[in-house]
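Objective 1.3, modelling of assemblies. Example input:
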Amino acid sequence: MLTCEGLTKRFGGRTAVDGVSFSVAAGECYGLLGPNGAGKTTTISMLCGLLEPDAGSVSVDGAPGGSLGAKAAVGYVPQELALYPDLSAVENLKFFGQLYGMVGKELTRRIGETLELVGLSERGRDRVGTYSGGMKRRANMAAGLLHRPRLLVLDEPTVGVDPQSRNAILDTVAALGIAVLYTTHYMEEASKLCQRIGIIDEGRIIAEGTNHQLIVAHGGRDRVRLTTHSHDVRPLADAYRDLAGVHTVQAEGATLELETDHGPGLLPGLVALATGLGFELSGVEVRIPDLEDVFLGLTGKELRD
Amino acid sequence: MIRVIAANELRRRVRDRSIVIGCLVAPLLMAAVLGLSFAAGGASGPVRLGVSGASAQLVRAALNASQLPRQVTVEVMGDGAAVRAAVADGTLGAGVVLDVKKADTPRRVLIPVVAPGSTHEPGFDVITRSSSLLGQEYAESLAAGLSSQLFAGQLDGGRVIDPPRISIVSENLGHGQKGTLNFFAPNIAVVFLFIGSGLGMRSLLMERTQGTLTRIAVSPVRASRVVLGKLLAIFTTGLATIGVIWAVTTFVFGASWGDPGGVALMAVGATLAMCALGVFLTSLAKDEQQAFGIVLIVGLGLSLLGGNLLPSGSLPSLFQTLSLGTPNGWALVGFGRLAQLREPVSAAVDPFLVLLAIAAVMGLLAMTRVRRMVEP
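Predicted structure (tokens):
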């Protein structure tokens, strides 16, 4: 549905996007995950025809990026609210629907369905300027969905949104079943929604794959932390070192920290062994690596930096 | 698609009331101010003036030239002493004593006589009393009118003749205030056109700020259609503005803009040219505040240069020539031919074509600039 090859964009002497390539299949939700300023919005702007790439190409459903055919296939939900505050949601959708060639009863029906989808049916006749922040975001999304795009491009749609509206947006996206390009710097959203994720930093995609693939490849091992009432945990540490699946053991005071292949699976065995050796545990913590760790491992910095 | 974009633009401007204020309230107010200022015969009571040293014919011609209001009556009196006595005892509001011997040199006659105290040298005594300031004003205007008639006679024959062969037909100039209204009503309408087009274009800058322009730009609509839609909306509001001013000054205050066909032609030409210029200038701005500043400064400059604030005939010849480099100057040429010279619709064709040419050039420049705002 979407193919980008070597997309590059420079602003003066700064390269905002540097040879980005990826593809999104029909029905797939692809996440572009990266910190602010990584090049996500610039990439999207080139996909939607808002910016001319300095190099590289875009193809949307077989049409060259930026062409009228490509534009008709894309539904764009920008990061900031892009609706007329003095008009109602229905009036906004009517106008934007007309831009996509929709008219008459078909347009009216689509408006009703789309408002229903984003949970704004009851407030559709109210001016957008009177909406709460979350409602505005949902109306913003409705404008991108109205013409039933084959590819939906969402640029950080949940930034600054209350948890309830955020969940509503995520549920809506999950239920669409169309190709979705979703940019975010919230790794939980990318993990939850996206079948594949591209991690972008300083204008380059530095890793790509499923959530699991990325974590396995770049996230490091599970970490298990055990706290005992004993002041000498060295016998327990020695016993753990001999266990299969345990890679490293560090002892510090009454605490042990283990690097393992599969922390939750090993945990019962670890607890049983400690009890068997006479150690009374006062705390157990298992930490499974996530995309934050992947990003940290790849770039040496936090995702929210 | 152009119609869809124009309709949305108009709907938004109705909703935020800017169209109501710009196309209805402000023009209505301005038309009312103009009408109440110039259409009525004046709020003051009758004023009597006396003139000596000039024939009744000369005085009649001077009255037309002076465009004095209807409540001013002028009597031709035997000599200067009679005028002075009548002013002193309050029978007359003021008087003018013409000394032809002093006025035999055209150059001296031409010196403006409207400034109090400057009347001796040119050959006029304006006789006034302190309790009748209006009388003084009217007498000075009458003296100016007499001066112009005498000067016209000088031009014709090389000497003062009585009456002058070049006369001013009262029908051409209208009756005092109505003539002024006929002059100012189209003038103000043209200024409103320019301001209105600038305000209309501001909405595109607002759309850029609020992100809706981005949403339009990602839709499968050609940038040229978007721009034409915006221009159509601005043209429609401009035409509505001039229509409101025309209707109110004509039907409520009795102004006469001249041949309706010619007025329609000039309204379309002026709206096209002023809107194209306004849109182009606004497209140079980076934001709304800058756009407002540009429209204000350029609007004031064009108004002065084109003759909207001061009749171009009263400006130095260089400025009179420069006024023909402005769209509003050409608009006023057309409207002036129709309203003041009572010429037929054919007289408006030339200025209309010039305005059309200005609109085409400015429109193309505006299209190029605005397209850049819409497409990458």
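Chain A has two domains: 2-217, 222-288.
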